[in-house]
């Protein structure tokens, strides 16, 4: 099923047990319900903040099934199916579509750097399974593929992609894409660029931070994209940015999970090789949440 995308699309993390060896499915369901309750417009399953690179294919399928069972019809479910091999990626794509995902997102296989024809062929196969264009996770730092505006337009015109999660951190190119009617729709994919890209025409954001601070991210989106109130947006951003900056400086996945615990929704440790946030970083995050006026997450059934 193809559906349009906009708003705050949370790259939800994957709750684990105490030592990170197994997925906590009950905590995952609570987390997804909390996202819906606090107004996010969609959830991304098994993205980078979801630690997809350390999950087995079976675990990734179980997350997709849990998301569909928990929030199907209540928010948009986007399943990230990129993997190190095309075999696994296509297997995940078929499973996600059969299970009931609303959209697919895919990062390019990221160990051996793909050539342009390799990428076109890969995306054509994923789009065929999706029965329509997908979201391309554009993250050159990981894939080594720093696509040009012309290449992204070509992928769109070929019917392979409709949106990009723009994690390239190239603001000039992002603006050019947003002004190019033949280009994919831009979804902000980096924390520092969130407000600037939304204000410049991005249709939404995909960030891990909105998994544990969804309400302030939704507030920013509403101020920028719905109310067009720059002063209000700047006031929200002034509260939000110090939190985002702390995540970036102290280990993003570990800090987002620490943030959820600080807000009363423990989701366990990251999976190794990532380690939990240290006490100093946690104390910093606790202080920043308090300064932003962000308290406990509301309980969900």
UniProtKB/TrEMBL annotation:
Belongs to the DapA family. InterPro entries: Aldolase_TIM, DapA-like. GO terms for biological process: N-acetylneuraminate catabolic process. One of its GO terms (cellular component) is cytosol. It comes from the Bacteria. Gene3D superfamilies: Aldolase class I. This is Dihydrodipicolinate synthase family protein. It holds the Pfam family DHDPS. Keywords: Lyase. Pyruvate binds at residues 49, 206. The active site is at 137 (proton donor/acceptor), 165 (schiff-base intermediate with substrate). GO terms for molecular function: N-acetylneuraminate lyase activity.
